[in-house]
Structures are given as C-alpha cells and as structure tokens.
Amino acid sequence: MAIDGRSPISARDRLIVALDVPDVARARALVTELGDAVSFYKLGMEIVYGGGLDLARALVDEGKKVFLDLKLHDIGTTVERATAQVARIGVTFLTVHAYPQTLAAAVAGKAGSDLAILGVTVMTSYDNADLAAAGYHAGVQETVERRALQTRDAGAEGLILSAAEAASVRALVGPELLLVTPGIRPAGGSADDQKRIFTPGDAIRAGANYLVVGRPVTAASHPRQAAESIVEDIAAAVP
C-alpha cells in the first residue's frame, strides 16, 4: 500500500538525496560513500538518460527507496502507460506535472502498485516574475494552491512544492497528502539556482514530509557527514 502524509517516517527516511550527477559511475560511488547514512535517493532526468534506470533497479534490489523525478507530461494514454512501466521497477515516488489530465492518467497507470504519484506544482527555481514571463496570470502561491487541490482531487499521493508554500498548502489539503520539498539548503549554504529555499528544520516545521537535497550533500567535501548533519536537523524538527 502506498504511503501517505499520515504514515510514520523516520528522520533518516525523510532525507532524499538527489543523485544529480553526470554518470552512473559517479552516482554509484556516492551511494557507496554515503552507506547507511542515506536510505532514499532521487534520480532525475540527467542520470536517467545516462543509464539510470538500471541504477534505479539495482538500488531497489539493495533495499533503498528510489524517487524517479521524470516530471511526466504528455497525452493521457502515454502518461498512463509510462507510469505502469515505472511501477514495475518498484520505485517509491514518481513525479508528473500537476495538470488534471496528467494526474488522472498517472493514477490510472499505477493502479495495483505501491508507487506514489507526486504532482509538480511550481518549480522552486521559479518566482512570480518567471510565471508572468511564461504567460501565467496567477502568482506562485495561487498556482501552487490550485494545483494542490487538483492533485488531491485526482487521487495522487502527494506534491512537489517549495517549503515556502508548505504551511499554507498543508492547511488547505489536510494531513493526508505527502509534501515533498526540494530547494533545501542548510543554514549558511549557497542558494545555487534556487529562488525559494528553506533549511531542513524549517521545512519540516512548515509541514513537509520529505526533503530533497542535492548539492549540499553530493558536492560536500564529506558527503556522509553532510547527510548525517541534515538528518540531525530533521530529527530535531519532527513533532
């Protein structure tokens, strides 16, 4: 049975390390270095298009949780069939863009599996000016809230959103939906290309269930130590 926002989650399982690296060899080296400090990994388009689906299968076989961040968006039949293929791999999360038709197709495609569908609301590298430039009349907050309700109504398990919107969305949709927040940076860390960032503890206190962290761990001089520090920050913030 797929998890939801009310499921108990350990502090370590709440950290999802993004393997946003150029090749599988580097990703595998990071997984080895991180060892049992990390139980959950995100594989995005960069690594997936470089052979990462085999890595996803291997990580699942090794008992790790895997989040495939593919951001599917296509005609309904294609999304449904692609989601069914992903479900067979045994990964935990899959992202699709949070448009009603796309969400409904993904939910149909994962039927009978434990795969959780996460609707992407607004990218954390976007702000109100970026949405306006793309032709959206609503700002980030209104757009995220609308897509949150559409994700819930479609029967998907959760959302990808900035921690900046987590508290208001949690109040809007209740405790059941999973809230997964990228754009996480430890206190004093670089924002890189993110515009809406939070520290790990602040994101948890805002209502996030899972935190996606990439460069603060993978580009750290001591990745395992960096991961352990984030887990400690999460543990201190969990109610």
Secondary-structure blueprint of this entry?
Elements: H1 11-14, E1 15-18, H2 24-34, E2 40-44, H3 45-61, E3 65-72, H4 76-89, E4 93-97, H5 100-109, E5 116-120, H6 128-133, H7 140-154, E6 158-160, H8 166-173, E7 178-181, H9 200-205, E8 210-213, H10 215-218, H11 223-237
Parallel strand pairs: 1-2, 1-8, 2-3, 3-4, 4-5, 5-6, 6-7, 7-8
Helix pairs in contact: 4-5, 5-7, 7-8
Brief account:
The protein is an alpha/beta fold and 239 residues long.
Binned strand content:
15-25%
Order of neighbouring strands in the sheet with most strands: 1-2-3-4-5-6-7-8
Report the major sheet: 8 strands, parallel, barrel
CATH superfamily: Aldolase class I
Helical/strand content category: alpha/beta
Distance between the termini: 24 Å
The gyration radius over C-alpha positions equals: 17 Å
Calculate the mean pLDDT score and round it.
Answer: 90
Give the count of helical stretches.
Answer: 11
What is the string of helix and strand elements?
HEHEHEHEHEHHEHEHEHH
* Overall form: globular
The tally of domains stands at 1
What would CATH call the class?
Alpha Beta
Number-wise, the strands total: 8
CATH topology: TIM Barrel
Task: Give start-end ranges of low-pLDDT stretches.
Answer: none
Helix content range: 40-55%
CATH-defined architecture? Alpha-Beta Barrel
Question: Explain this structure to me?
Answer:
Substrate binds at residues 20, 42, 69-78, 124, 185, 194, 214-215. Keywords: Decarboxylase, Lyase, Pyrimidine biosynthesis. It catalyses: orotidine 5'-phosphate + H(+) = UMP + CO2. Catalyzes the decarboxylation of orotidine 5'-monophosphate (OMP) to uridine 5'-monophosphate (UMP). This is Orotidine 5'-phosphate decarboxylase. The protein is an alpha/beta fold. It has a single domain (11-237), classed as Alpha-Beta Barrel (TIM Barrel), CATH 3.20.20.70. Helix content is 46%, strand content 16%. It contains eleven helices and eight strands. It has an eight-stranded parallel beta barrel with strand order 1-2-3-4-5-6-7-8, surrounded by five helices. Strand 3, helix 4 and strand 4 (93-97) form a beta-alpha-beta unit. Helix 5 (100-109) packs parallel to helix 7 and helix 7 (140-154) runs parallel beside helix 8. It is globular.
